[in-house]
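User: Quick one: structure for sequence A, then sequence B.

Assistant: Sequence A:
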Amino acid sequence: MTLRKGEKMTISIQEHMAIDVCPGPIKPIKQISDYFPRFPRGLPAAVGRSSSSAPRPAPSQTSGSPSEHPRDDEEDVDQLFGAHGTAPAEQPARSQAPEELVDPEGYESDDCTALGTLDFSLLYDQENNALHCTINKAKLPKLDYRKGLKPMDHNGLADPYVKLHLLPGASKANKLRTKTLRNTLNPTWNETLTYYGITDEDMIRKTLRISVCDEDKFRHNEFIGETRIPLKKLKPNQTKNFNICLEKQLPIDKTEDKSLEERGRILISLKYSSQKQGLQVGIMRCAHLAAMDANGYSDPYVKIYLKPDEDKKSKHKTAVKKKTLNPEFNEEFFYEIKHGDLAKKTLEVTVWDYDIGKSNDFIGGVVLGINAKGERLKHWFDCLKNKDKKIERWHTLTNELPGAVLSD
């Protein structure tokens, strides 16, 4: 292109872009934000000062290979954020001794505390076949998107409660829960929940699952974290304290759920009164009953017979307890009978679910007598052997009761 004397050179925009880009390697076009970097929240101000005062490496020559130029921008980023992360492995000269990271929210970044901690204690009362679970307090983390935690409530707080569940077992009867505390991340319950009818066998094969949840009135309750304690870790009549980290929800293995075969348990007391010349039968309570209604509960009551019952006058009933799988009756019934005749008798105890407008559902039953086996036989024998002594025992209900009429 030739220019006449006195003319100025004009360059089109296309020619200008071509001159700026070619020849040579392609460089990324800098944006204005590159000159005013925004530091992440919580980054100390000293980082910005140190990075700005640090000498920049000399720009590479245009004769270098194209792969070297993106590396320059990576080094800029490393300079800006090197104090908030880890230096690349291929730059050993720039790496420094590891320092403890400080969370800007004041919480530890360890996964152990990501879901919070729970303080509680467990006590197995062997004499009364009861497991006492005292839920003391919890410490829940603040909302932190970096740890993948979902927001609980719009105010960043929670309405936490604790739920207990004995495994294996899928019945609502195995579930207990504390009260709900509102708008807190540091709830203190100091509440004791008790499982009744816990045997030594249960302490060997069962596990206590403790879950912390956030109650929501308008949606499903949110799961926060859980922990599981094998009951075999507990020693009888000794309180064991725990302060452990919550974990993510684990699947329940239903293939090993043998307790689904059980229909529940019942606490029965027997006493032969020499003064009244008769057998005193106490129906104290039931635990872990099978749910027979659509709402996941039952309306249980208990019937007892002393057989053979030629006059059909031995039938007794307890009151109906509404919507529960762990009813407490504390009712006693009396049979006038000679002590010598008890050896020929059998006590049949059945538990039913009361229904309106249709037949009552059979939940389970147990037979005590000289023809029984195991604990049922031992309970009956101890009653005959120890007059005027009240003897209480827990018995497992079965869904088939020989000699019983499965209709009410």
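Sequence B:
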Amino acid sequence: MAPAPASSPSSSALPVFPEPLPPSSELLVPLHRALSSASRIVVLTGAGISTASGIPDFRSASSGLFASLREEAAMEGVKLASGKDLFSMGVYKDPDLLSLHHKLLARLHDLAEGCEPSAFHKLLARWNDEGRLLRCLTQNIDRLEEKAGLSFGVPPPPAPRRKPSTSASSASPSSTPTPSPSAAAVLPPTPPPTPPTRPAPAPIPRTIPLHGALGPTLSCPLCAFSTPLPHPPLSSGAPSLPCPNCSDFAVARSAAGVRPRTVGQLRAGVVLYGEEHPHAEQVGAAVAADLRARPDFLVVAGTSLKIPGSKRVVREFAKAVRARGGAGVRTVLLNREFPTPKKEWEGVFDVWVEGDLQEFVGRHEQWRAAPPPPAAKRKAAVPPEAAKANPAKKARTAPASPASRRKAPAPAAKAKASPKSKAKASPAKVGAAPKAKAPAAKAKVNAPPKAQPKQKTEAVGIKAAFGVVGKARAGEGGGKKG
């Protein structure tokens, strides 16, 4: 899609996508208004929302975590093609990479524990308190959403479906014993069978980590044993973290003369590249439920959307938001860079805000806290051209000018000047007091009214068109005295 031509700052129309807008742009007023009125907001976040808290992002060329990890590994004699290698399943094939991986996880955990939520995390918490945040899907592992006050975790597994019982239907009427008449009179009636009650499903956490989370424990994937963080062997970069529960069980089996089993390795709850998501079914069921809930706004913040799973989630929610119909802003991307290739995202985002994410939050809060304009300023103004084109509407809108009121007695004064007209007019006014009205008539004949300047008449009409009716009426009162 071709970019739109440059528009003036005073214009309220948004530029054609994907032209970026800075957080301070006045063209973002429709976006602020739509965000303030949305009731089912879905947010997908990336590392960009946590950089203001002191946690580096992953992919920035200069300050990204992948670039700095490559340099640190080279200093320790480990060659990395990219820092991404320390977040892949390949670390379990190389003890040196696994040692660096453990050190990295321990450092990130300590860093996240000492950080405070950013302004964007607090904005999410406010939307949640207002009941307008449907779900936050985060690609981060720092758990700062939980610090901000949002519920956090993996969705509960879906409840198993109960098969209908066939015992009652399969039983034949002949097999049911029929009590004798004497026994039926003594025995109480049998109550109907109570259907089994299904337990209420557990609530879905407001924040779902798409790539797992760092902490609060290390766990064994074989026996589900867990130990809290920080864990000293993890911090020291030990190349192996054997599960103590599995180790004790293996020793017991060996003493009993039974073949020992595999000892599991303690792991953080982070999903690595090349690894199947252990909770993919629960996350997929929660996303499907949110799509059925008909969200009305999608916010994608602080991510370049490189992960295929996140790409699909964004596209599905964008379709769901647009399926509700209506005009206006429905989807927004808040990030310094636009996802590539751009053609992939045509028709997905309505607005792209390029710049500092926290600055956008500040601008949004300022717009929200600003008082609404007074009612007089919001009243539609009638231009003079429209009033001239429709004389009847102008007569209803603008009051009569003093000049038009003075011109009304002029024909009567001219009639008094002619003797014939005076003779004809006198019989019609029976019982009138001519002496009381003679001086006024004479004054009108001797001093004809002066024509009102045209500029003053137009000025009164413009004031009335803009709603300043009180000043126009003050002018009318002065004209009546003349």
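The chain has a mean pLDDT of 77. The two ends are 68 Å apart (CA to CA).

User: Thanks, that's what I needed.
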